[in-house]
Amino acid sequence: MNDLQYKDVRVLITGGLGFIGSNLARALLDLGAKVSIVDALIPNLGGNWFNVESIRDKLETVVGDVRDLALMQDLVANKDVIFSLAAQVDHIASMADPIFDLDMSGKGALTVLEACRRKKRGARVVFPGSRLQFGRPRRLPVDEDHPMDPMNIYAVHRLLGEKYHQVYHNAFGISTCVLRLSNPFGPRQQMRHSQYGILNWFVRLALENREITVYGDGSQQRDYFYIQDAVDAFLRAGSMEAADGQVFNVGAGAPITMAEAARTIVDVVGSGKVTHIPWPEDRSRQETGGYITDISKIEKALGWRPKVNFKDGVRQTAEYYRTHREHYW
Amino acid sequence: MNDLQYKDVRVLITGGLGFIGSNLARALLDLGAKVSIVDALIPNLGGNWFNVESIRDKLETVVGDVRDLALMQDLVANKDVIFSLAAQVDHIASMADPIFDLDMSGKGALTVLEACRRKKRGARVVFPGSRLQFGRPRRLPVDEDHPMDPMNIYAVHRLLGEKYHQVYHNAFGISTCVLRLSNPFGPRQQMRHSQYGILNWFVRLALENREITVYGDGSQQRDYFYIQDAVDAFLRAGSMEAADGQVFNVGAGAPITMAEAARTIVDVVGSGKVTHIPWPEDRSRQETGGYITDISKIEKALGWRPKVNFKDGVRQTAEYYRTHREHYW
Fold first, then answer.
1. How much is the ipTM here?
2. Separation between Cα atoms, residue B198 and residue B239, nearest integer Å
3. Does A99 contact B106 at a Cβ distance shorter than 8 Å?
4. Quick check: is A212 in a domain?
């Protein structure tokens, strides 16, 4: 990552106490950035003070809400790069309360952009999209031009955020980049329930020597990639000219089946057991089928590709939670 | 329209005092429907009591806001068909205040659907999308599968509403239909400014014997169609099984240039004058280029096609405003 210029760069991470935000904050500090984070610590949204405990004295931390335009104007005014990560990230919860999801994820992302328009048009803003924007893939691997038929409200609001970033780039000249992530996993994601981040949940079950239940035969393909690689993609998106105004699909680029993933976790962790159960009806309706990311665009434009293989990622994840279990269970 | 079964059907029109809503209410009454309208009469959003003056005693009218979930639950509970038209419809205003636009158009449309999920899953809900969802067309005519690159916040929120309706159909079983309209014109649209509904604005300028200014050479193609045809599309979408879960592009299907449209208006109205001015920079950046609707999908599925030619539409529009000018100027 020698080409990533972050020395003394002023960075704001919204949702900075969450999974991606806190891992990104760490990497940015290592690169010499001045890092501020803002997080509303809304229950069940993934924010966790422990995620930044060991770096807390090197960060500016603000407890506040991205929907607060006055606060956001104040926070973005002296920043160079903004990672707009605050959101409701649970797709099952998004279906239970779509109006809250809109407010948190839609209005939140828009308010960050609007603050930049008013106070800092020169900022770069990086936003995470999701592979769920595509719905059921019509072809694999999935490239950036694949049609988008989101199947849940979470995914609709990822798409909404993406379109906002494109409009603010094209109409207002703000430098934006959207990374449509497949399924990142690793340290610092919530571990309390299985509604999202299922890979991490499997690691928990294995650590507790419990049964890992896989729906059906587990042959559905997933594109899991390790958080360190996701962080690398965000770092590039926030610092490289070639990212301006772009949307990239980001993931492993190579599939693993659910069943293989579960077996590897049991194998690496050394405990737990894989069992298969029939698809629950509500999950089945939400299931998108197999997914593989076409990573050629981001590889070409930003020189990014994943470096951590699945097994090593699982090993580091298990190691992290084995050590810090009490802060996540 | 003999195949449109609306006798005693209970219909709710949100934004019912606006352009499309009030014309639709009239047609529904003619078909024997029991029509309720709700409108918040928010300034500049197009609601106008005069639009329903002659039918007011045949309607139930509620002054209220679609963002009010409790109210919407109450209103949808005993309805069969809902036309979800309430919105901020001015794309220029959407760029001035994107957060308000989200609230009005995004949260508003979502709240109507959420009310149906909670109180009336058997309802049909019809929603107007926009040709602006497509941004600059990559090919003409534009069919339903054309990629969507909205260039302004108004268009982003039309896309958002469309995706909501698809998710509520697929996940919650609500019967929804989205009609992506090109450029409807005609009686009962606002006439106070030119920020949207430019065709109507041209009619006003002609009626006042003023200059109609066309940007550049006026060679950009537009797909103007008369409100009566738009209403017919809504009536079909709200009553035909073949509309369930569908999205249709709706428009004239035949282009007219801006310059031709302006000349026809001057000719039909018998006053006014066409002049050309260079493109203003902000308008130029928002300009999508030519647009022609591919109407083959809706023609095949719902048997819809436009019946009123451009000149007759202009004549009826001019006649309406000549008579009722004081209620719109």
1. 0.95
2. 31
3. no
4. no
